[in-house]
Please model this.
Amino acid sequence: DGGITQSPKYLFRKEGQNVTLSCEQNLNHDAMYWYRQDPGQGLRLIYYSQIVNDFQKGDIAEGYSVSREKKESFPLTVTSAQKNPTAFYLCASSIRAGPQSSGNTIYFGEGSWLTVV
Amino acid sequence: AQSVTQLGSHVSVSEGALVLLRCNYSSSVPPYLFWYVQYPNQGLQLLLKYTTGATLVKGINGFEAEFKKSETSFHLTKPSAHMSDAAEYFCAVSDRGVTGGGNKLTFGTGTQLKVEL
Model:
């Protein structure tokens, strides 16, 4: 079945540690996104990528890093610089980016919980 | 900058009653509009979206929403609530005027729907 796979579902991070969340899609979508969800705050965009080897910062990129070496993969690294990383992280994708793409549906993965211990 | 306001972080209805979840947007031009549903510990699923054409949009699971430009609203309704509708609902907008920037969604803070017997 086509879809977006995020792993792990639950991850614990120690203080000062970097962790990486995996996101893989087999929908042949060009654009991929990472959102952070906190209770009562909705979803906020961390990073997005419109094409392989290119990505842009979203609204809350500080303390995070990404790579887009393959079309189907968009891993997110939560670095030690992110002081409040405990949240639910959602990866998403859409069929294409570029002009007139803003009406395209964005599809979401099942999410990953990150907790600082 | 565009924004989304969802009135009521929690809404409770009886099974079989009308569901009305409110969404107002602020944007320099009429945006693309989306409603997503999220079940506990899961990703978001698209209910419906408005891009062009008829302002009354029908979605999955019996939900519909009407785009009212004069009121800058996109309220979500369902004539008869079912227990399975209990979830969190997010309204989102995407800037119609974006060129080359992909479709970055701005989300509201969500409305938790509770359905009681």
Notes: The two ends of chain B are 41 Å apart (CA to CA). The mean pLDDT of chain B is 90. DSSP finds no helices and twelve strands in chain B.
